[in-house]
Design goal:
145 residues; alpha/beta; Rossmann fold; two-stranded parallel ribbon; 5 helices; globular; binds 1,3,4-trihydroxy-5-OXO-cyclohexanecarboxylic acid
């Protein structure tokens, strides 16, 4: 089983970027945490981060036929992109949307996600724990009979 952890714009600056909101740990720490959970479950993990919407769409398309689950944090594109949810829908790969912060308790423009309708679940406001929960949730969903 293979999962793709996909992070959008400015998440490469984790640790530096608004640490009060996003935490003090960097992207390497996040990916190491995800890798540990995937290793425990026997899931192969790939990761991708881009600041560009089209690159994220291309990566989703490249997952077609070779990836069992996607864990996207589309970052700011969550609230603006139609192309990202369209791509997720096109490849029909189950996804759990994750946000480090609680997008529902911040500025009004963050309350709407174009991605949520195509996700099997949205987890937000739990920091790095949210990624772990997403991996475990997707694994359970895909292995349940
Ligand atoms: C975010 C929330 C978004 O509103 C924001 O634009 C981000 C990060 C989060 O993980 O909390 O870049 O997706």
């Amino acid at each position: 089983m293979k999962f793709l952890i996909m992070n959008g714009p400015n998440l490469n600056l984790l640790g530096l970027r608004e640490p009060d909101i996003y935490g003090k740990e960097d992207m390497n720490a996040l990916l190491a945490r995800c890798q540990r959970v995937c290793d425990e479950l026997g899931v192969q993990m790939e990761s991708f981060q881009s600041n560009h919407e089209g690159a994220l769409v291309d990566r989703i398309q490249a997952a077609y036929g070779n990836t069992d689950g996607i864990i996207p944090n589309p970052a700011a594109y969550t609230h603006t992109s139609v192309a990202i949810p369209d791509a997720l829908k096109a490849v029909s790969i189950p996804c759990v949307e994750v946000h480090l912060s609680d997008i529902n308790s911040r500025e009004a423009f963050r309350r709407h996600s174009f991605v949520s309708p195509v996700a099997v679940r949205t987890i937000c406001g739990k920091g790095f724990d949210g990624y772990e929960e997403a991996i475990r949730f997707l694994y359970q969903k895909l292995t349940a009979h």
